[in-house]
Amino acid sequence: MYTRLFAPAPPAVIAQGLRTEDMARLVMKFGGTSVADIDRIRSVARHVKREVDAGHEVAVVVSAMSGATNQLVAWCEEALQERHIFDAREYDAVVATGEQVTAGLLAIVLQDLDINARSWQGWQLPILTTNAHASARIVDVNGAELIQRFKERKEVAVIAGFQGVHKETGRITTLGRGGSDTSAVALAAALKADECHIYTDVDGVYTTDPRLVPEARRLRHITFEEMIEMASAGSKVLQIRAVEFAGKYRVPTRVLSSLTDPALPVEQEAQAGTLITFEEDPHMAMEKAVISGVALNRNEAKITVHGVPDRPGIAYAILGPIADANIDVDVIVQNVGHDGMTDLSFTVHRTDYAKALKLLKSQVQPHIKCRDVTGDDRIAKLSIVGLGMRSHAGIAAQMFRTLAEEGINIQMISTSEIKITVVIEEKYTELAVRVLHKAFELDQE
Ligand code: ADP
Ligand code: ASP
Ligand code: MG
């Protein structure tokens, strides 16, 4: 029996940066590039040591070394010859090993620095998940043993991210790409940590991907609502489930760079990066930008079903079989019908593109008797995100005008309360991101 450690925290306002005098409990997460080789792991250990020396209780969550997960996935694919899909339980058994290696290595390096450290795999705590192998969700984390060791032995816990265990089957599960972020936030919730620090290869959340637009600016704060929309629109700096978790359990989460000098004073480190915060926090009122960021996603493809009879049940007849094949659908657009006929377009993940197209042509087309099914995998999805959209009119018009001025055709549009998404031709991605970034003055403080 496990004690349920998760309980949504009361809706208090999140602390503004860590106090430096008090002892705090921290979860520090280091992504793939931050642990890419032994030198980097040593540097990570120094970041950990700084917090330990400051008197904090520390749990560290690590990703696999950069490229390791890709290699493991590639081996699974190579191993399969006759069948189309592999057993997801065995896929998890393979890909979970990447994080096991880093956790052990970091514990060795920490011990080398005279820090009492111990590594943990998901099943050992345990981190309990659903049974959805390869994209499992965390349902509970038992942090009791770690807390006891913080108190009794001043021990640093190093936890393999990305992996957990299914409660009933006892099998190892993994959380989907980027899942270590979610491991860290869930652990922080379970440990009732004061802050969860996500260390990565950029020093915070930017107005757009800084690798694409050099003028991108670091945001000192961003709300959970906006971060969820940014993540879902393709900003992979944080896994979307991690942000959802942080919002639900009120985990103060900060994105920081692991590439900074580990000897940076704790006070400075505590003010660096980007704090994910709540709209009602006083300092959010200070940052009044209407749009907070531009997100892009080049991993989708568009499918159009042409000339379908415009009658009840048609959308279901098309998208039902897609859902049954476990294919996620994103932007959906149905045209206004003419003469009882219409077109339906939607996007899917690029890895599902061929499968979806085949399924529609072989099963759906003969059934609903549509004219044609076509597709395009050279598209990009671009989104602007901002809480200010709720109170400002004309944001969509400004976005469309900016794209029109560059001669960029909009193929699909979808909106939420704080996000506008367009689908465009892939070759215009960089241009579109740059002009939107400028049009909404995101390059200006
Ligand atoms: P990690 O391996 O540490 O988990 P990721 O590669 O998952 O790191 O995420 C960090 C990367 O996210 C950055 O290198 C950056 O290119 C990309 N990124 C995309 N959008 C943004 C954004 N708005 N702000 C910061 N980084 C972004
Ligand atoms: N190693 C996993 C991945 O590459 C999980 C993570 O890094 O968060 O997606
Ligand atoms: Mg990541």
Summarize the topology.
Layout: E1 25-30, H1 38-53, E2 57-62, H2 68-79, H3 88-95, H4 97-112, E3 117-120, E4 127-129, E5 138-141, H5 144-153, E6 156-160, E7 163-166, E8 172-174, H6 179-190, E9 195-200, E10 221-223, H7 224-232, H8 240-248, E11 253-257, H9 266-271, E12 274-277, H10 282-286, E13 293-297, E14 300-309, H11 314-324, E15 329-334, E16 341-349, H12 353-368, E17 372-376, E18 379-385, H13 395-405, E19 412-416, E20 419-425, H14 429-439
Parallel strand pairs: 1-2, 1-9, 2-6, 3-6, 4-7, 9-11, 10-12
Antiparallel strand pairs: 4-5, 7-8, 11-12, 13-18, 14-16, 14-17, 15-16, 18-20, 19-20
Helix pairs in contact: 1-4, 6-8, 7-8, 11-12, 13-14
Explain what the structure shows.
It is a single chain. This protein has 14 helices and 20 strands. The N and C termini lie far apart (52 Å). The relative contact order is 0.11. Strand 15 and strand 16 form a beta hairpin. The strands form 4 sheets. It has an 8-stranded mixed beta sheet, sandwiched between helices. The chain is α/β, with parallel strands linked by helices. The protein is globular. The chain binds adenosine-5'-diphosphate, aspartic acid (ASP) and magnesium ion (MG).
